[in-house]
Specification:
Rossmann fold, about 220 residues, single chain, 5-stranded mixed beta sheet, alpha/beta, two-stranded antiparallel sheet
Length: about 220
């Protein structure tokens, strides 16, 4: 029988909020002592900089650990959200591990959730709530971005040629807008996109592919 502890952190913010790798390791260490489990240092599996949106089996260390586990092994997590992205992934993975004879413990749920006791029921309920919370947060973020977009705020990404950012908003860049107008005039006169690209480089020192020239000219 082998005992494993799994810890994961994805952002500096999580670390600052008490979910740091060190905190998780201490929690698992204390829990293991109470259960008389002995975890060798190499059996503490650490996942750094990996989002919880990635399914456990598809994470670099999670996937490796998943393939290592054999019947009789014990897998310990400090918290439910360190392991699974949604209810379906949580229940499917837990079912497979249980079928393989592996015990899964979540410290925040009180211990073993692979038995048929209250821990299993709590696991199912909290997995559903965790999924609901993530979906609610994602919806809230989308709504905020829609409001910001309607207010003309810049939401990130590449700044289009002809514009600059002022007070979180895209505003016309007078010099580049003048060049865009020249490009459109040349296009109306029949100059090819490649020739306009060459003209931009020769006259204005601006390197721009002919496909980008097309997008700029057409306001895309």
């Amino acid at each position: 029988m082998a005992i494993y502890g799994y810890v994961r952190v994805s952002t500096l913010q999580q670390a600052n909020e008490g979910d740091s790798l060190e905190t998780q390791l201490k929690q698992i260490g204390s829990y293991s002592s109470l259960k008389d489990y002995e975890i060798p240092p190499e059996n503490f599996i650490t996942e750094r900089g990996v989002s919880g949106n990635l399914e456990f089996e598809k994470r670099p260390e999670g996937g490796r650990l998943f393939s290592l586990l054999t019947a009789g092994d014990v897998l310990i997590f400090s918290k439910l959200d360190r392991a699974f992205r949604n209810t379906r992934n949580a229940l499917n993975t837990l079912h497979e591990l249980k079928q393989r004879g592996i015990s899964v413990h979540f410290i925040d749920l009180g211990g073993d959730v692979t038995n048929d006791g209250i821990g299993s029921v709590i696991f199912t309920i909290l997995s559903a709530f965790a999924t609901f919370e993530r979906e609610r947060i994602a919806t809230r973020i989308r709504e905020v971005k829609q409001v910001q977009k309607a207010e003309g705020k810049f939401l990130g990404g590449f700044t289009r040629f002809g514009y600059l950012i002022e007070d979180e908003r895209l505003v016309p860049n007078p010099n580049e807008q003048k060049i865009i107008q020249e490009m459109r005039d040349l296009r109306r006169r029949g100059m090819s996109l490649r020739r306009i690209s060459y003209w931009l480089d020769r006259i204005h020192g601006i390197e721009m592919s002919h496909s980008t020239v097309s997008n700029v000219v057409h306001g895309i």
